């Protein structure tokens, strides 16, 4: 397989000051892996649908099944993944379990993702 010459440097060189500055900025391996796991958990259309709904309101599993037209089993499975990744949290009230986004950073991350997609598409709803 040949490389596209327009995507690589044609001459080997490096910029010591830039390399040093960026090397000092780099996150730890542990943090990089944790963020990769976060994005992996976000990388599913069903989970993003759940998170989109939770951006608007705390919801119980029954509400999510109606909104998303998914089975309770499917919603519960995706919520387990999201809870395991600390993206959503739950609370029990009587016989119902309510889910919400774990913290404001998660909401910002999702909203920023939607803004990026809308910008790339030239506006409009996602």
Automatic annotation (TrEMBL):
It comes from the Bacteria. SUPFAM superfamilies: Winged helix' DNA-binding domain. Residues 27-121 form the HTH arsR-type domain. GO terms for molecular function: DNA binding; DNA-binding transcription factor activity. InterPro entries: ArsR-like_HTH, ArsR_HTH, HTH_ArsR_DNA-bd_dom, Metal_resp_trans_reg, WH-like_DNA-bd_sf, WH_DNA-bd_sf. Keywords: DNA-binding, Transcription, Transcription regulation. This is Transcriptional regulator. It comes from Chlorobium phaeovibrioides.
């Amino acid at each position: 397989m040949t490389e596209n010459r327009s995507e690589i440097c044609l001459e080997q060189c490096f910029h010591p000051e830039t390399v040093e500055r960026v090397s000092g900025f780099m996150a730890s391996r542990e943090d990089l892996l944790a963020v990769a796991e976060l994005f992996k958990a976000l990388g599913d259309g069903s989970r993003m649908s759940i998170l989109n709904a939770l951006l608007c309101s705390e919801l119980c599993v029954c509400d999510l099944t109606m909104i998303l037209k998914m089975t309770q089993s499917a919603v519960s499975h995706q919520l387990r993944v999201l809870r395991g990744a600390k993206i959503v949290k739950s609370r029990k009230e009587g016989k119902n379990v309510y889910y919400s986004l774990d913290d404001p950073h998660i909401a910002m991350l999702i909203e920023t993702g939607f803004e990026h997609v809308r910008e790339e598409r030239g506006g409009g709803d996602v």
